[in-house]
Each structure stands twice: as C-alpha cells, then as structure tokens.
C-alpha cells in the first residue's frame, strides 16, 4: 500500500512533499469515500423505492385508508387483520396457493431431475432437447397462458384428448373444477426447464470416481442413483424446492391472463391466491389498508414456510 | 449386457422424444395458427391457404399500436439494463473490495431485500407513483428497478474472487480507487456482467405484474401487457392472437438463441451458489 502511494507520487514529488496529509485528493481516494459513493446510488433508490414503501405497508395495514384521501388514514388497530382472518375468501385463496405449491413443487422437482438425467445421457441432439425444454422458461407467461387458453377450449383436440383420462370436455380455464389445475400445469411447464438446468449442472459436478468406485463395490444403477446421486444433489434440491415454493406462492401472470375482464381469481375464486387476493383488494378496489394487511400476512406465511423448509431439509442428516 | 444397454437407450430416447413433443407442440401450434385464416383454426390446411394477414392486421389496425408497445418495451428494458449494469456493480465492488463505515449493514440490506417478494411493497409503490404523477410514465416503469439486490449479491461474489494484486498494480500505475474499478476490474468482469445483462433483459422484457400496474393506458402498454389486452379483446380470433404471441415472443427467443450458453450458465451458477 505504502509502496503504491510512493510510486504514484514519484512524478509529482514536489507537490507530494508540500501536500498536507489529509488533502481533498487523498480523501477522494479513500476507501471510506469511494465505498460510500459507490453504494449511494443503490442506497438512495433502495430507501426511496423499497424501504420507505416497505415500512408504509406495515403502517397502512393498521389504517383504514382510501386512495382518494390518503391523508385521512385512520388508525384502526388490528381491524383489517381481524376482517381478513374472518373472510372465507381469504381461506379459499390461501388454500389455492397451498394446493398450487403442494402439487407443482414436487412434480417440477422430480420431473426436472428426470429431464436433467435424460439430457445428461450420451444421446444424439441433447443440446436441442435441452433448448426445447428450457424455452418455456424464457417465454412470457402471458404468451404461454394465451396459447394454452386457445388449446384448452371446449371441443379442441387437446381437451378431447384429455377426456380419455376421464376429464370433461369443457373450457378448462373457465371451469371451477379445472381452472386451478390449468394454472398449476402452466406453472410447472414454465418452471421445470429451470429446475432441469440447475440439476444438470449439479449432476456434472459429481465426480465420476464416485460412480466408478461404487461399480467396483457392485452397485447397480438404482443403487448408484439412490446412494450417490440423490445425496450429492441435496443442496441443489433445497435450492430448487425453496425457489419453487416462493415462486409458486407468487403466481400472478397466468391467473391475470385467464381472468380476462373478471375479478382476479376467476372463475368464482377458483384460482384466487394470496397474491391475487391482496391485488384485488389493495389495487383494484383501492382498499389500501386492507390490501396492505393481506400483504403483511402473506409476508409472514412466506417467512414461516422458508424457515420450516430449512428445518425439514437441513436437519434430516 | 449389450441387450440391456440397448433397451435402456430405447427407453431414454422414447422418454425424451415424447417430452420434447409435449414441450414443442404449443410453439408449433402457435406458429402454424398465426399463418392461417380463422376458418381453418384447429384443422390442418396446406401451404396454399397460408397468409400474412394476421400479422398485417397488427400493424395496420387502429385498435392497437404494436409499434408503440414495442418502443415502450425497448425503452423500458434499455433503461433498466443500463441502470443495472452501473448501479449493481458499483455497490457490489464497494461491498467486496472497499473497507468503509456501514459496509456490514449495507450487505445485510442487500441480503434481506433479496429475499422479500416485490408484491410486499407494490401497493405503496403504486400510491407513491400516483402522488408524484408518475403513473403511465417511463419514470414509473424504470426508476425503482434500476438495481436488483440479487445481482449485487451475485456480482459481489465475483468481485471477491478478483485478486487484490491486480487492483494494487492498477494503483501503482497511478489510477485512483475509482479508476481502478472502472478501467481495470469492470472491463475484466465482462462474463459476469453479460450474465447480469441477460437475466435482467429477460426478466424485464417478460414482466407483466409491474408494467400492468404502473402503466395501464393503452399508449403506455409494454408488449406483454398489450398482448394480454389483444387476447381479451379478440379472444375468438385465434389466428390474430397467435400472431401477437409470435410477435411478442420472437425478440426474446432470438436473444436467447444468441446468448443461450451464457444464459444457462448464469442460471446454473445462481443455483450452485445461491
């Protein structure tokens, strides 16, 4: 460090000797100054458009406040929370969110792993297959949902095909029976490519020697998978499951698309989730206090689930 | 042994081809339907009946202005991209290589922000935008999103790995601390910056929740929001809607095919390190 300073100053020895120890220039070149200058753009934007609104969400959740007269917010204590917790629609939304996560996360985790193993084999065109499986992930969810809506209308060949599996020939996204399944399938279809890529790179990190050693010990394919692959993939599985859970709770685009001009969560709340519930109340109905309270509840649900998952998947050793 | 190998090979090919059919069918259907007149929907028709009319309608009808939506999307994505490629690396470098008061706190801010879903603050953001008169402006669509905590985290991991000797050498050549970053470290970080750019681009281009909330008049729609409105308005005109899907999706797919390798690496890195 010292050496660097002397070297830098060699050309200006005259200036250097007369310069006071704490000049403006040396201040401008200090870690303190540069550190803050570099962090400041982030900090300003964060304070303005993250921290302040975040705090506002909490404060508003204890208020009765309407968009038309924001300054007239009235403190009403826990009333918003009490109302939400007595609203059957909230439980319907919560139930739907849980259903989506409980179906989508296991399916896309297992399917993603299977697909990763398939495209990791020595087969022709595996690059092409990888791309095909990954494309839904980078496609807009509105676009994908739009296409699926056209395919799953009454009397289309897709809908008719599914009647072979005991499904009815109805427009899926307009049916209270199938709309939630429709949304869940779309979510899996989108997310599974991501899971595959994450698993694929994890599979390629596992050293071949482990498998070779196990073959010498007489392990068959299943045993190799069960006792080498699965344990080695555990950290990645944790990552995939927690990302899937958080994203599953946040599904919005697909539901907004199928609701068309109706209330979010159409038909008849069949696809309402904690996110659409808060959005419908807080932004569409402009009931800011109520919507904020719903968001705070959602926040604690996410936190609780994250902690639970960490416990479940980490302490199994 | 050879026999079982063959059987498993056939099994693998069957499974993968079936899956590939399921995954590519919606795209092929979309492409096909976008080129046919409405009376042929859900039937097969030869090339002689194909037409560009569905695409033409998009650029000629007054009901929607695709070119405007494309312009809005490009401007929004461009501004957010530039912001993220300046603000994130600066903060990340400070957290990785500089020693200053409050650094630990800022690091925790980044980590916690990363974990909080954006929905948490959407209502107050919407209200504050309205108060400022920013709704339906590029300011609303871009300013709050010029940084991303997760990319600050990702870049910090990368900068930590940059050898200190490199920075010291730059200092010896007379560069200031800021100069050492912008002239030496930043250009050397091209791979990770490309990853951030790709992830930001895709995420912004495809986003619906935020643009549909903060810009909700048809002139200020971005492509995805516009597509959704076309779908709702002309739901029975499947070929037209499918042409819209193709127009919206094509740029992002083209982009993906160019940067496919870096994109997938970026994703898998986020998995391994996250």
UniProtKB/TrEMBL annotation, chain B:
<feature type="transmembrane region" description="Helical">
    <location>
        <begin position="69"/>
        <end position="93"/>
    </location>
</feature>
<dbReference type="Pfam" id="PF00528">
    <property type="entry name" value="BPD_transp_1"/>
</dbReference>
<dbReference type="GO" id="GO:0005886">
    <property type="term" value="C:plasma membrane"/>
</dbReference>
<dbReference type="InterPro" id="IPR035906">
    <property type="entry name" value="MetI-like_sf"/>
</dbReference>
<keyword id="KW-0813">Transport</keyword>
<keyword id="KW-0472">Membrane</keyword>
<feature type="transmembrane region" description="Helical">
    <location>
        <begin position="105"/>
        <end position="126"/>
    </location>
</feature>
<feature type="transmembrane region" description="Helical">
    <location>
        <begin position="12"/>
        <end position="32"/>
    </location>
</feature>
<comment type="similarity">
    <text>Belongs to the binding-protein-dependent transport system permease family.</text>
</comment>
<feature type="transmembrane region" description="Helical">
    <location>
        <begin position="240"/>
        <end position="259"/>
    </location>
</feature>
<feature type="transmembrane region" description="Helical">
    <location>
        <begin position="180"/>
        <end position="202"/>
    </location>
</feature>
<keyword id="KW-0812">Transmembrane</keyword>
<dbReference type="InterPro" id="IPR000515">
    <property type="entry name" value="MetI-like"/>
</dbReference>
<keyword id="KW-1133">Transmembrane helix</keyword>
<feature type="domain" description="ABC transmembrane type-1">
    <location>
        <begin position="70"/>
        <end position="259"/>
    </location>
</feature>
<protein>
    <submittedName>
        <fullName>ABC transporter permease</fullName>
    </submittedName>
</protein>
<keyword id="KW-1003">Cell membrane</keyword>
<dbReference type="GO" id="GO:0055085">
    <property type="term" value="P:transmembrane transport"/>
</dbReference>
<feature type="transmembrane region" description="Helical">
    <location>
        <begin position="138"/>
        <end position="159"/>
    </location>
</feature>
